[in-house]
């Protein structure tokens, strides 16, 4: 099974990599795992099938999933458009050291299955806007700040017990 390495996806001095994939016909990516990074994937169009650590899931528009470092996964579908954010583990670890409750790394990494959520229409638009900001700012000096804001806003939604944390406020140092 192939292992994708962080150095092949995130350039030197970069905090992350992000890209939009648009596949008109049938598409698949064979089983693989990640070394040192995870993927946050938002489906915008089509139906994606994914198997993560042997668990099959169907993702439709508005579904978001976090494939963690070390997870084995494969993907396939038809007529897809999705955004894929490659998240170096070092970035979310750095943020979790500020406030472990704001960024629940332990709950994300320790979850029995890949963390995922179905976004409401308004959340989907907001996440798409935030992802567009990450795309525009990927090579900019403020990229680490953009990524920090994104992670602090969206990763708690994917953590188990997200409902309990939904009403919590961000840490005082976080000023969106």
In percent, how much strand structure appears in the residues?
35-45%
The structural class is alpha+beta
Order of helices and strands: EEEEEEHHEHHH
Overall mean pLDDT: 83
Q: Which residues sit in consecutive blocks of at least 5 with pLDDT less than 50?
A: 162-168, 171-176
Radius of gyration: 15 Å
Oligomer: single chain
Number of strands: 7
Largest sheet: 7 strands, mixed
Helix content: 25-40%
Can you tell me the overall shape?
Answer: globular
Specify the number of helices: 5
Distance between the termini: 40 Å
List the helices and strands and how they pair.
Elements: E1 3-5, E2 17-35, E3 37-52, E4 55-59, E5 63-67, E6 72-88, H1 89-96, H2 105-110, E7 116-118, H3 121-137, H4 143-158, H5 162-165
Parallel strand pairs: 1-2
Antiparallel strand pairs: 2-6, 3-4, 3-5, 3-6, 5-7
Describe this structure in words.
It is built from five helices and seven strands, in the order ββββββααβααα. By secondary structure, the protein is α+β, with helices and mostly antiparallel strands. Strands 1, 2, 3, 4, 5, 6 and 7 form a seven-stranded mixed sheet that branches. The protein starts with a strand and ends in an 11-residue tail after the last helix.
List keywords for this structure.
disordered C terminus; 5 helices; 176 residues; alpha+beta
